[in-house]
DNA sequence: CGATTTATTGACGAACATCAAATTGGGTGG
DNA sequence: CCACCCAATTTGATGTTCGTCAATAAATCG
């Protein structure tokens, strides 16, 4: 159930079997959400953090004119609001982009981990820190990458993140997003997303149809995106 | 020396005098940097984290064509690479935007805090989590705010962040940036920054001249930026 | 005071948004 | 299986924002 989380944590550092047991014991109830449902509303007091085990989730905020920006995308194995352990109230909404299954981790049990299992706590801390690295890379995309390059970068990142948790073939994966949702992630209009997808297709780099991404030229895509997975920090070393 | 950090942490939660002593004892050498110098280079192995106590620092990455994007701005009292405790290698460069003074915190002492002072460790964790919240707000700016609004938002955020550590008057502060550096923060060209600064001036909201920001109409600026300091999480509550 | 960086302005072009319409595709009920 | 519907995608025409290029003005520094 929390296997994908463990796979990910073990890309960061060893997790002893005792730590594994502690983590499994900290898991609470499992909940399902349907596509479109709100998982967490901004500015609510939370008493548990949420691990995504199946489906796709986005964090987003809205502006006054009704426009919406996705600030983070979560794949299975990701905590979607681990920072609520510290912040108590999250600053963004969490919504299900597809039917989802999540596991709740009551905060008191996570606090307990910080008290008695410092190394494990550091791994959890690391996972919030890597969320930050992903956000920084998003800032790069929105700030200076062109729109094709931005799109290419997103597809590269997701290929790697899905692959880590065993949800991608070597050059293909399922992505439960439509073009409007893509536009909210990349800060552009659906119309322009459509045109840039066409460009990626015509350049022979990638197709995205029927919720499936198929990468035909990985090296070309990486070059266009200037993608470097370094920021995902997936090299195993002691911490 | 680490007083600004303590002020900030105490906005988050109580810090006992024992914890304060532990934190003071963890501080290592003080180092000075001159404007323009590199404080930390991306992809280097670090053995200490860096607390900024004086000056202005930016984290940035460059793309192949030479363009540069700032991913985070640090003010005194901020750790600029606390995440290097977990990631070991940071994914971005750190540069001094003005003459700076920093204090190094050796990682072994910080690890020690996670082992023996869980509550204090959680406050440090929180400070990395708030960095993430600031990054998310930057994503909002770059993704959907117009360029005037983006500029306005930055000035609002900095007013609050400087004020917390006692470095701003009620409607004015020192900001050691030129228009080119502003453009690297906000993902636009220096020319356009110049025009948007002019617009803010003409709208009677704010002036930025000679490294000094003077806000003439705070409410107007906040409205234009849709600024809400909630994400800075400055309400004191138990954690 | 001259030299160099920084700010400012104008003219023009490219990237992206907006508006609107047409097409495709998936699901549903007859 | 077909007809229909609705949502999502695709395309075209046009407008706006912002970038680029280039020149001038102002500020800063030795």
What do you see in this structure?
- The structure is a homodimer of 239-residue chains.
- Chain A has 239 residues and is of the alpha+beta class.
- Chain A folds into 2 domains: 3-116, Jelly Rolls (Sandwich), CATH 2.60.120; 139-232, Arc Repressor Mutant, subunit A (Orthogonal Bundle), CATH 1.10.10.10.
- Chain A has 9 helices and 10 strands.
- The first copy, chain A, has helices at residues 3-12, 17-26, 84-87, 107-116, 118-144, 147-164, 179-186, 190-202, 218-225, and strands at 30-33, 38-40, 48-54, 57-62, 68-74, 93-96, 100-106, 172-174, 206-209, 212-215.
- In chain A, the strands form 3 sheets. In chain A, strands 2-6-4-5 form a 4-stranded antiparallel beta sheet. Chain A has a 3-stranded antiparallel beta sheet with strand order 1-7-3.
- In chain A, strand 9 and strand 10 form a beta hairpin.
- In chain A, helix 4 crosses helix 5 (118-144) and helix 6 (147-164) packs across helix 8.
- The longest helix of chain A is centred in the middle third of the chain and has 27 residues, at 118-144.
- Chains A and B meet through strand 5, helix 4 and helix 5 of A and strand 5, helix 4 and helix 5 of B.
- The structure holds a DNA duplex (30 and 30 nucleotides).
